[in-house]
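Same chain as my last thread, 66 residues:
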Amino acid sequence: MNQLVYLNDQDMYTVAFGLSTLRSSLTSPKHLIMAGTMIMIIPATIIFWVGQRYFTEGIATTGIKG
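reply #2:
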């Protein structure tokens, strides 16, 4: 609940905090929670797929000496 110290306005909530707030309600709409989770996960997955070559190249070159 540390987020509540910094985020006083409900419009400023992060997606993860908004989903946890939605989940804690008595009648939690499962379809909205799953849609919000997909909205939160898809951009990170796309960035990983695009940058995967550079991530693995950086890991491979750090092991080479000389």
